[in-house]
Design goal:
By secondary structure, the protein is of the alpha/beta class. The protein folds into 3 domains: about 5-55, 434 Repressor (Amino-terminal Domain) (Orthogonal Bundle); about 60-160 and about 290-320, 3-Layer(aba) Sandwich (Rossmann fold); about 160-290, Response regulator (Rossmann fold), CATH 3.40.50. It has helices spanning about 5-10, 15-20, 30-45, 50-55, 75-90, 105-115, 130-135, 160-175, 190-205, 220-230, 245-255, 290-305, and strands at about 60-65, 90-95, 120, 140-145, 155-160, 180-185, 210-215, 240, 265-270, 285-290, 315, 320-325. The strands form 2 sheets. A 6-stranded parallel beta sheet has the order 2-1-3-4-5-11, with helices on both faces. A 6-stranded mixed beta sheet has the order 7-6-8-9-10-12, sandwiched between helices. The N and C termini lie far apart (about 75 Å).
Length: about 325
């Protein structure tokens, strides 16, 4: 049977409340009492009940992590960083896999059942209204990788996708490519729309011809490989900006299967800088999104909201950078 708080108190010769305070972060307890309690707890093999503590404090220390892109290897890094950052702060993640679900109600009901203290929506494909639904329900929420806009009702942490799209256009222009294509992620995703907007606008300024605009159905290898066929139908295309590294890797294999060498016959530029991008088989030049900075900032914000709700939403955007490898011809 589990050792009880009462048994620890009796062995230590202190009150039950003294035992409770000893295992409550920030609670006042003398060094002498703490030593007695910890010694008794060690002898009995006692561990404080998190469930009991949550009932007493009205805090579960659960943070909902809502995502819908589990098939992408990039999310493995995201999940690892999120869980580590939460656990370092004594918090625990409650994972919600949306799959094809786009309505927040089911997720909201689940998170309410577990009485989460806060929510992080980690997705660039969900609309801003999704995260706003949690805010309206009174749950502190941060939209990570979300679309930033002036009237957003929630905290947003991520990047400026319009500027990143423009960065991609400049990257290709600097390498003297003149006829290009855009192979984006899902067309309905706000991140895809913003990257496309930035790329197309900057390309026009630079005199860069964009002769093909295609979209992959999902952020996946197979979707990228399939969508690349439409790009390869135009022999004039010299380089392709892909909205995601998995899409870009699929595009590279599609080009090779069609007898086109990368980068000799066609250049490929990716986005995200996942681990596979650095594999020798692909050596993908890509635009790195500062995932760690974004995640740490998201956790910092949601914890701050739980401890002391902020007066208004905050937008935190981090700069991206081009990671040079071998899927584009060298800059002059």
């Amino acid at each position: 049977m589990a050792v009880t708080l009462k048994e620890v108190a009796e062995l230590a010769g202190v009150s039950r409340s003294a035992v409770s305070r000893t295992f409550t972060p920030g609670a006042s307890v003398s060094a002498k009492t703490r030593e007695k309690v910890e010694k008794a707890a060690a002898e009995l093999g006692y561990s404080p009940s998190l469930i009991a503590r949550s009932l007493a404090t009205n805090r579960t220390k659960l943070i909902g992590l809502v995502a819908n892109n589990f098939q992408n290897p990039a999310f493995l890094d995201v999940f690892d960083l999120f869980t580590s950052a939460l656990q370092e702060r004594g918090l625990r993640p409650l994972l919600v896999n949306l799959s094809e679900e786009t309505s927040p109600q089911q997720s909201l009901n689940l998170l309410r059942q577990y009485s989460v203290d806060g929510v992080i929506v980690a997705s660039s494909t969900l609309p801003p209204s999704f995260a706003a639904a949690f805010q309206e329900a009174g749950i502190p929420v941060v939209h990570t990788f979300g679309k930033h806009q002036g009237d957003t009702p929630v905290h947003v942490v991520g990047i400026d996708n319009v500027q990143c799209g423009a960065m991609a256009a400049r990257c290709l222009a600097e390498r003297l490519y003149r006829t290009t294509a855009l192979l984006g992620g899902p067309e309905t995703a706000t991140s895809t729309q913003d990257r496309a907007k930035g790329f197309l606008t900057e390309a026009e300024k630079l005199g860069l011809r964009v002769v093909k605009v295609c979209y992959a159905e999902t952020y996946s290898y197979e979707a990228g490989r399939q969508a690349m066929h439409a790009v390869l139908a135009d022999d004039a295309v010299e380089a392709v900006f892909c909205g995601d590294d998995l899409i870009a890797i699929g595009a590279i294999d599609a080009a090779r299967a069609a007898g086109r060498q990368v980068p000799e016959d066609i250049g490929i530029l990716g986005f995200n800088d996942i681990a596979m991008a650095g594999w020798d088989a692909y050596a993908l030049t890509t635009i790195r999104q500062p995932i760690r900075d974004i995640i740490m900032s998201s956790v910092e914000l949601v914890v701050a909201m739980v401890e002391a709700p902020a007066s208004g939403p905050e937008i935190r955007l981090f700069p991206c950078s081009v990671i040079e490898r071998g899927s584009l011809r060298g800059a002059p």
